[in-house]
Amino acid sequence: MSSLKIPVVPSTMAGRVFSEELHQIREVHIEMESILQSLAALQNSAPCASCANVCCKEILCRESIESDFLRFVLGARVDDYSLSDGWYVPGSGCRLSYGRPLVCYEFFCERFDMQEVGSLKQLSRAFKSVYSNVFAGQHILVVDDISRISMNKLRVVLGRLEGLRDQANSALREGLLRQLASQSSRSEVNNPSATGKGTA
User: Fold this and answer.
1) Contacting residues for 56 by C-beta, under 8 A, at least 6 apart
2) Quick one: how far is CA 22 from the chain centroid?
3) Strand, helix or coil at 125?
4) Where are the beta strands (DSSP E) in the chain?
5) End-to-end Cα distance, the chain
6) Beta-carbon neighbour count of residue 115 at 10 Å?
7) DSSP class of residue 138?
8) How many angstroms separate the CA atoms of 1 and 172, rounded?
9) Any idea what DSSP says for residue 135?
10) What's the predicted TM-score (pTM) here?
């Protein structure tokens, strides 16, 4: 899909040195978040936009500023965090396009239980599991200092993450093609003369 402009690493972490592998993981992670958000946006019912019982709470948002990895992904955005509302803005939703807690991609709301979002849920679960057991049996979200993760482990994570990104990109392409085909067939039904199938 289109290339993203990856934001710079946070000034709040400027005193620390991060490996090239971690920077690459950050870039692919941000791409992956963008793809998952695009897949969620393909749902015709737009469940989050019309939801009256928003599941976004400050206690969930907090992981993005407490996790060393997510702070690294967030970059300078970490300073915009609201202690009362987290990243949520009433009427417009989450302010973050990247660096969200991974729970945000679990789509546990029953409004995401339609057949079409099966691949979205599978990709989201895989996204979370890519980071399992990266340091002393811990998930990357709970590792206190991500710079201590070994190069070998980071390379494994990066390889898995790149493979998952490619898979997610394929799912997004298929979803977009399905949506275009659906819109095209609806257009033909609503305007039969456009296809030459109108009355003679």
Assistant:
1) 86, 87, 88, 93, 94, 104
2) 18
3) helix
4) 88-89, 93-94
5) 43
6) 6
7) B
8) 9
9) B
10) 0.81
